[in-house]
Amino acid sequence: MTQLARVTGLSPFHLAHTFHQVMGLPPHAYLNQLRLEQAKQLLLAGHPIATVAYAVGCADQSHLTRQFKRIYGVTPGQVLYHCKNRQD
């Protein structure tokens, strides 16, 4: 964020404030939303949870599971389970 602020000529605070006004979310929440959407797509494609967690930048599988359940109301394991049952 600091580097982007420097490039744009804005202070980090002003850049974050403007981003929030335009996007409706603060930068960190927007980034988390993008990561979780990518995780959902990877899970629906049948990728293992640990691989997905690493691919989207989560520290570990439990971190992904907590964030995923908070946003989507289900765990990544439940998504994989339903995805596999649809294919059978």
From TrEMBL:
Q: Which domain of life is it from?
A: Bacteria
Q: Write down the SUPFAM superfamilies for this protein, in alphabetical order.
A: Homeodomain-like
Q: Which GO terms describe its molecular function?
A: DNA-binding transcription factor activity; sequence-specific DNA binding
Q: Which residues form a coiled coil?
A: none
Keywords associated with the record: DNA-binding, Transcription, Transcription regulation
Q: Which PANTHER family does the entry mention?
A: HTH-TYPE TRANSCRIPTIONAL ACTIVATOR RHAS-RELATED, TRANSCRIPTIONAL REGULATORY PROTEIN
Official protein name in the record? HTH araC/xylS-type domain-containing protein
Entry-linked InterPro entries: AraC_XylS_family_regulators, Homeodomain-like_sf, HTH_AraC
Q: Determine if Transcription is one of this entry's keywords.
A: yes
Q: Where do the HTH araC/xylS-type domain residues begin and end?
A: 1-82
Q: Which Pfam families match?
A: HTH_18
